Each structure stands twice: as C-alpha cells, then as structure tokens.
Amino acid sequence: MATTTVLSARSRLQRSTSAWRRFLQDRWALASLVFLAFVGLIVFVGPSLAPYDPLQTNLGLRLKPPGTPGHLLGTDELGRDVLSRLLHGARPSIGVGFAAVAVAMAIGVPIGLLAGYFGGLFDAVVSRVVDVLLAFPYVLLAIAIVAALGPGLFNAMLAVGIAGVPYYVRIVRASALSLRDQEFVQASRALGASHARVLLRHVFPNALSPLIVAATLDVGWMITAAAGLSFLGLGAQPPQPEWGVMLSDGRQYVGVAPHLALVPGFAIFLVVLALNLVGDGLRDALDPRLRSSR
To answer: In this structure, are residues 85 and 241 in contact, taking their beta carbons and an 8 Å threshold?
Structure first.
C-alpha cells in the first residue's frame, strides 16, 4: 500500500508540474494572475493607502469629477473621496466572493464525495434535492435566503454561498462516480484501506482538478452576485464602502456624475474578467485536450 501511495503522489506531482508549465504559456491567464496578485495586495494594504477617511463627508466638494486636485477619482454625492471608498471597499467586495465559495465548498464537497462514492439511496436523495435547488434561478435563491436571514454583508455571503452548494455537489459527485471503480481505488480497498482513507487519499485528490477550475470561475460569479445583492439593498448597507453599494448610490447620478457608477462597475468588471481568464487558463492547463480541440 505504501508503494502504491508513493507512486500515486509522484504521478500527481508530475501532472501538477506539467499543468503549471502549460499555464505559464497562456499569456492572458498569466497576466490576469499578476493583476489578481496586485488586487490581493490592494485588499490587504489598500485601506492604509487611502488618502481620506471613506466616511468623511464634505458637501462643498460634492460630485467633483475625476482629476480634481486632491481627489484623483472625484467625489460622490456627499463629497466623499471615491478613491478612498474604492480602496476600502475592495476587501469586503472581493473577500465576500472567496468566503462564499469557501462556504459552498465546505458544504457541497463532502456531500458530493459521499453521494458519488457510496451511491444507493443517499445518492438518489442528494441528486433529487440538488435538481430541485438547481431549478431555482441562482440569484433568486440567494435573494430568498438573504431575505429570510436579513440584510447585511455577512448574510449576503452566506446566502450566495448556500445557493452555490448544489453546483459543487454535482461536480464532486460526478468525479467520485468516475473514480470509485478505477483500478487504483479498487486496489486500495483490496489492501484493506478504510472508506475514509480511500476518499481522502485517492478519490478527493484526483477530484481536485475540476474542483479548482470550478472554484476559480465561481469566485467571479459570487463577487458579482454579492455586489448585486448590495445593489438591491440586501447586502452591505450604506454608508459602508462596498463596490455594490457604491454602484447603487451612483446610479442616481449617472447623468451628472457618471464616474460614481463607472468606477466601481469597472473595478468589478476587471476583477471578474481576470478571475475568468485565470479559470480558463487553469482548465486548459489541467486538461490539455481542451486546448488541442479548439
């Protein structure tokens, strides 16, 4: 069993190295990864770089355009510095997407693994429940959950994460179904390995590739969904600096100060686009057959 485990780990390491080399050859994905690293730096140090307090109002400077001395991205309807609010809003706006994906994976991955590996009645029940949940529009389900929990950024994160659980259940279940009858899994069982060991040492590691790609692509969608809830007044609440809230406040002034909506909207667009490009790059790297078929 030890020899089988070593060979399996060595094979996974070789596949990971090859996948990383293929990823580095994708210029768009690599550039997007660099951009996301910069965004990650902004998330952590952005608030300390903000030139003003994001909640500080100055009605004498309201609706100033970008390029105004002292206010690079202008000011909003209350005279608050847009750049400062953008920097402070990066952490909740982007963090909620990653947190929601973590919630969805924490619930969906174990359920999908157990359903796909053991099958039977449990798998049938899980599949029917997932089918029912997937019949609801994703955003509508999130709105229903956050309406029951109450408005707020934390509740919006939970709502978006819970709404995404069926997605991960289906992905991991499909991988577990295809892996449970593979020779290396059967050999591990024949050597006396417990179900828990087989799941954790063989099935789950080999199901990581589609899971990583799905999570990378899903983070962008989660960020958009959470921003949408904030836009509707169900997520972050004013005056908290959050990109969805900034977009909601700015829509009233599109005619006179379009930058109030364009700045947070463009920030969301760039982050989600970069995440999608990285996800596409990972998908091509982890499954080179997709690249050759294009």
So the answer is: yes
Query: What CATH number is attached to the domain comprising 223?
Result: 1.10.3720.10
How many structural domains compose the chain?
Answer: 1
Q: Tell me how crowded residue 281 is: count the other CB atoms within 10 A of its CB.
A: 25
Give me the domain span that covers residue 282.
39-292
What are the tens digits of pLDDT across the range 89-143?
Answer: 999 999 999 999 999 999 999 999 999 988 889 999 999 999 988 888 878 888 8
